[in-house]
Structure formats: structure tokens, C-alpha cells
Amino acid sequence: MIKKKEIQELFNNYNNLSEEQLDKLLALIIKEEKQRLGLTLPVEFKIDFDELNSKSAGGDSTMDFNNDKKQWQYTVRLNGNEWYRQYLNNRNKTYSNGNMNYEASLDSLYNLIARACHEMRHAYQNEMTRIKSDLSNPEALIWLKQELVVPDEKFYRESHNYSNMPREVDAYKYQYNRALDYVKTYTDIEKNNPEFYNSLVQTANNNEKKNVKPLEDLTFIVNGQEISASEYFNQNMTDAFKANGVTPEIIKRSILRYEYNLDGTKKSLEQLMQDKQAMIDGLDKSLSNYQQQVGRIENIYDSIIKNDSNLQQQSQQADENKDRQPGYSREEKGTVYIEKQQQVLNDYSGKKIGNRTTTRTTDIEKGTEVSDTIGEIEDDSGNYKINEKQQVYGGELQLQRKEITKFNKITGQNEQYVYQKDKNGNEIYYRRAEGKLTFRITRNARGTTMEHYDNGQLTDTFEYDSNGNALIGQEGLDSIDDNYIENYFETNIPYFVAENSDLQMQKSTVETRKLGKETLDLQNGDKKMDDVENELEKQRAERRPPQQQTEEKSFKDRMRTYVDFNNEAQEIKNQVNRDLDNGTFGQENSKSQEDYNPEEVDDDYVL
After folding, report:
1. Which pLDDT score is estimated for 195?
2. pLDDT of amino acid 534
3. What was the pLDDT predicted at 400?
4. What CA–CA distance (Å, rounded) separates 597 from 28?
């Protein structure tokens, strides 16, 4: 967390804040959370001593239409009779407990900040379900289902249903971490009173263990019977659509469209898979975050299937059918899935020229996926050994490496071709003949460099900027595209068509006697380039004059669509859409942190 001067000045007196100072501190924290969570609407912050107390609520967060200002806003209220008043009563109070000095004032302030963060997380949930039309957070679909299905305060509060509401569980998880961040960042308590700080950490951990559970463990009591929360939502969505006036237009313009047809019926597994593939096919593969975007799309549809028992059964059946495909096998070890696919490789005439085996290991709990492919090809030009590896974490590419070793029947040479790309988009390709470098291409944030070698000695160097335009261009090549390096590598592989098949006598396709050190490093899990690559990079950097880096332009924000479930403010919806068209939506919130003057804040805080 980055320190803010105004917050720090108030925290310097955390054990004896006046009521006015406490109001200002909470207002600044609300604003900090607004910025961190990326909320687009204004936030009005209030301390409530009456209504919330009568409801036995510690706080409240709603999305309301402000008739005076003719705009939507988030209203966040904290119960003045709960942690707020407790802090005022505990100012300057410290108790000894063994070796620990228990600071009652900071403990109460921590709880009050946690509650503020909790309610701001609810505002974020409303942002994800009411304004954002894309699944920036896969949990948003569950939050929206809860909003539609459980408008009844009685059901929300009775039995243990409240603590099992997905929105509440998410808000609790958020509040504990954020409140500790504020204490750790703005006080020296961790250093000066570690026993007390550790007690705060332990309390937060205990509360999180008690109140934060995975979605699949959340259950409701309905008519005395226990039912999973996600199943209860799914069973009642049809009635909820009718009760809330959800029209085809609303489904089309909201995140509901991922899981539901425009008529309100649920999509089948086949439809979901088709939609998923269509979204992936529509991505630009040249994007630096292509793999991350693919992972994000997969997370969206995986979460939809995971949260519906019927879809899970269909998916399991599909997996069983897939298991019966030629050459395919799947093994489950807890949260780890190991899939293996064997394929025969045929040339353009249908003649078999090789085979390959791909093993994909997916760890659902850790969010990792590792794919290994080994294979061999033989044609008139030579004998090829193929070795490919890809590592993905959280849907984001960490490392991609492809390697070919070839015995060239025409020249009699042993050749090696290597392509590698890391999580930062850095790429390298090189070719060796009889162990000596002949050609090399590298790409990083500065641009692309091509180097030609003769018997291992550098002969020519060509440079291209970060946009692929020639600075010192190779003859006939004025520009290169984003896929140039990987495509260059692929030209060394003979054309083939892969066909799934059971391979009977699959022999090892990696002869380490013929491979370089980098291949052995890769097999041992070493992600670094080999010594000769690093040395060449160092030499090239020393002889090349520094170039100004071109700042990559960020992509435009996705269009935000407001969905009015109650049909009570069509005009404001139209205004938001006009603002979107004009590019002015949300500009009323563009003031920087430095523009904010806490002295100007009155009883109600509008941020």
C-alpha cells in the first residue's frame, strides 16, 4: 500500500482522534478504497446512529439514485453505536496482558476500518453486477444471482443464511486483509508492539477461518432443509427474472448473457463451450497478454460449469466420452489432472512421417498448467526431434519453449533450432549447426535484433524498433509483425496434419547427447537462458547506443453498460449511454488524491 500524506497525519494520532478527525480519517479511507476498487460512481459516506442500530447492522452499502444531483451513487453507512462509538470510548486506553500492551483504541479503530472496507467491497460488488457488463470477476455472476433471488431481508437474516451469502463471504475476506494493511502501513505497531500486532493478525485469521468459505461449501436452510447456495440460486432464477422484470435486453447487456439465453433459459454445456471457443478465436493472438486473456475466458466458463450441478454432470460425461478418444488418457490425483494425447503426424498426401505425445498437468488448487510435447518426424530432408514446453500460472503465460534438433540428410550436419518466450513478452530464436551459432533473433521492450553468424562469429546485425519498423533493416524486410519470431521458428518444421491415435511402441524422442545445455536446463526446470545467450545479450547491449523506449499505449476501457433492473430511471440510463458515446462517463470522479481537502468535508461525505 502506498502511503497517503493526509491519512498518515491522522494516523499519527490514532489513539486519540477527535470525533471530527475520526470522520475525516474514515472519509479518506473510503476514498482510498473507491480508487483502489475502481468504482465509477460517487460515494456518499454517513455515520448512522439510529436506523442501522435498530436493524442490528454494523453497516450498509446501497446503490441509490440521488434526486437532487440527478445521478446514481453508492451510499455507505456505518453504525455509529457500534465500532464508531466504541473507538471514541476507548481513546487513550491501554491494558497490560502479560508481555503485551493491549491498545484498546487501535483495536477499535482496526475494527471500524475493517467495517468500512467491508461496505466498500459491497459497493464494488454492485459495480461488477450493475455497471460492468463483462465478467471482470467470475464471482460477479454469483453476486448478481444473489441480488435477484434473495431480495427478502427475512431470508437473508434467518438461521445461518446471512453468513453463507456469497456477497458477505467475499466482503469479510476483503475487510480482514485491508484493515491489517492500513494498520501495518500507517503505524509502527508491528515494530514497537509486536505482541499486540500479532494478536490483531491472529484475530483476523480466526475471523477469516470462521466466516470465509469456498462457494461450494456455502449452504442455506430452506424450510428446514439444507441446500447449497449455488443450487438454490439456479433453481430460483426463472422466478427471479419475472419478479425483477429482467428482459431480453437486460440479459443481452449484462453479465447474465454468459450463462443465459435471451429468453431467460439456461445455456447447455454445448452452448457454453461454443461461446467459450468463439471468444478465444476472436482474440488477437499477437497481443502480449493473449495467454492471460485466454485464461480469463476459461475461468469465466469454468466457474459457470462448476457452480451448476447439472452442467457438472454434463461436463463429466463429456470427459468420459473424451477419455474414449484414440490416444487420450486422463488421470486425477486430488486437485491435479494429468492428460495425455498421442498423435500420428501425416504429410499433405496422408503418409505417416512421425508422431508426438503431449502431456498436460493441471493443478486446479495452485492455478498452474504445464504442457510437455515430445515427438519425432522423418522426411527426405532429415530426422527431427521435437521438444516443447509451456508453463501457465493463473491463466498467464510464464514460459513457452520450443526446440527442434535435426540431422540434415542433405548437409550431414546436426542442427538445433530454439524458440523461447517468457511472461514479460521477451522472445528469442536461434539456430546452431554442429554446435556453432548461425542465426539469432531477440525481442524485448526496446525492439527486435537479428544477428547473423559465420562459424560462431558475428557478421551482420539488423535492428527494428518496438513497433517492428526497421532502424537498420535487413534488405527487403522493412518491417516485421508481432508473430515474426515464432513464425520464423515454425518454418523449420515440416508440414504435417496431426491425427489422434494410440501409439504402440513410443520410444524416447529426446537424445540429450545431441542437445545443448539449455535443453538439459529446461528438463530440470531451469527457466533461464543458457550462458552463451546471456553473454551475447551483454555484448549486444554494450555495442548498441541507447534508444528511447516507446511507451505501449493501453487498450481502451471496455464499454460500461448500466442495467436498471427496476426500470425506474430510464433517463439516467440514457445519460450514461450518452456519456459513454462522448467519452465523458465517470469524469466527475477524476480528481486526484491531492485535490481532496478534508477540511471541506461536512457531516455527510460525498467522494
Report:
1. 93
2. 54
3. 92
4. 10
- Per the CB < 8 A criterion, the answer to whether 215 and 203 are in contact is no
Cell numbers found for residue 286: 499477437
pLDDT at 60: 92
Neighbouring-strand partners of residue 449: 442, 463
> Dihedral angle at the C-alpha atoms of 200, 202, 208, 211, nearest 10 degrees?
-90
Tell me how far apart the alpha carbons of residues 386 and 174 are, in angstroms, rounded to a whole number.
46
Identify residue 475 by its one-letter amino acid code. Answer: E
* 175 and 125 Cβ atoms separated by less than 8 Å: no
Calpha distance 470→479 (Å, rounded): 6
3-state secondary structure of 256: helix
Tens of pLDDT, residue by residue over 91-125, are: 999 998 878 899 999 999 999 999 999 999 999 99
Cα distance between residue 541 and residue 528, in whole Å: 18
Number of H helices, E strands in the chain: 19, 21
Cβ burial 371-401 (10 Å sphere, 16+ → b, else e): bbbbbbbeeeebebbbbbbbbbbebebbbbb
Q: Please report, as a single letter, which amino acid is at residue 303.
A: S
Residue pair 49/58 in contact by the 8 Å Cβ criterion: no
Q: Is beta strand 71-79 parallel, antiparallel or unpaired with respect to 43-48? A: parallel
Tell me what pLDDT residue 321 has: 59
Name residues whose C-beta falls within 8 Å of residue 550's C-beta, 6 or more positions apart in sequence. Answer: 465, 466, 467
Take residue 17 and report the three cell numbers written for it.
482522534
**Alpha-helix residue ranges (DSSP H) falling in 244-308:** 248-253, 269-281, 290-306
**Residue appearing with cell numbers 504435417:** 496
Q: Which three cell numbers stand for residue 498?
A: 496431426
Contact indicator for 114, 68 with CB cutoff of 8 Å: no
The amino acid occupying position 332 is E
Positions of the chain with pLDDT under 70: 158-159, 315-324, 504-607
Dump strand ranges (E) for 164-214. none
As a whole number of angstroms, the longest Cα–Cα distance in the chain is 89
CA–CA gap between residue 215 and residue 307 (Å, rounded): 8
pLDDT in tens, 5-34: 999 999 999 999 999 999 999 999 999 999
**CA separation for the pair 560, 66 (Å, rounded):** 20
Could you identify the residue written with the cell 547427447? 513
Q: Which of 41, 32, 35 shows the shortest CA–CA distance to 75?
A: 41
Name the percent of the chain in helix, strand, coil, to the closest 5: 40, 25, 30
Q: CA 475 to CA 460: how far, in whole Å? A: 12
Whole-number pLDDT of residue 121: 97
Please give the Cα distance from 444 to 490 (Å, whole number). Answer: 20
Please report, for residues 170, 172, 175, 203, the alpha-carbon distance to residue 117 in angstroms, rounded to integers and kept in the order given: 11, 9, 5, 17
Q: Which three cell numbers stand for residue 597?
A: 481537502
**Radius of gyration, CA atoms only, the chain:** 30
Which spans in 399-543 are helix H?
484-490, 517-523, 531-543
Of 454, 451, 450, 420, whose CA–CA distance to 434 is shortest? Answer: 454
In 3D, which of 229, 243, 419 has the Cα closest to residue 309?
229
* pTM score over 0.85: no
What SS3 state is found at 31?
A: helix
Q: Who contacts 45 (Cβ-Cβ below 8 Å, separation ≥6)?
A: 26, 27, 30, 76, 77, 604, 605, 606, 607
Q: What is the pLDDT of residues 505-529, one digit of tens each?
A: 443 333 333 334 443 343 344 334 4
Q: Which residues pair with 442 in a beta bridge?
A: 428, 449
